[in-house]
Amino acid sequence: MLTQESGKDVLMYHLTEESFDIEVLREKGAVVVMFYERWCPKCSMTKPIVEEMEKKYRGRIKFCEVEVAENPRLAAACGADIVPAFLFVKGGVVEASMKGTTGEKILEKRLKELL
């Protein structure tokens, strides 16, 4: 499901176990998936960075989010045992992953590698 937060020009696909296959694994282009928890302070610090990158790379990279509490089996299957965690997928293949808080420079480096 595509979500747009009120008052923000950010487009993030909010994924579930049911939509992950279609939105990520069957996608021909580049996709970034952020696994997070609502209660997680590190996730709250990282999310604005991801939102800025979404605006910058819109049309070239699809940005998605998965709330771990809502989708524990999906998180476990993707190795998201700590949050935030990221998957970098291209053409349905996981190219890289990253766990923990990240800064803008590191995230952007990963995004450029994905393209």
List keywords for this structure.
115 residues; alpha/beta
Describe, in plain words, how this protein is organized in 3D:
- With 115 residues, this protein is an alpha/beta fold.
- Helix content is 37%, strand content 30%.
- It is built from four helices and six strands, in the order E-E-H-E-H-E-H-E-E-H.
- The chain has helices at residues 17-25, 41-57, 72-77, 104-114; strands spanning 2-4, 11-14, 30-36, 61-67, 85-90, 93-99.
- Strands 1-2-4-3-5-6 form a six-stranded mixed β-sheet, with helices on both faces.
- The longest helix has 17 residues, at 41-57.
List the helices and strands and how they pair.
Layout (H helix, E strand, L loop, with lengths): L1 E3 L6 E4 L2 H9 L4 E7 L4 H17 L3 E7 L4 H6 L7 E6 L2 E7 L4 H11 L1
Parallel strand pairs: 2-4, 3-4
Antiparallel strand pairs: 1-2, 3-5, 5-6
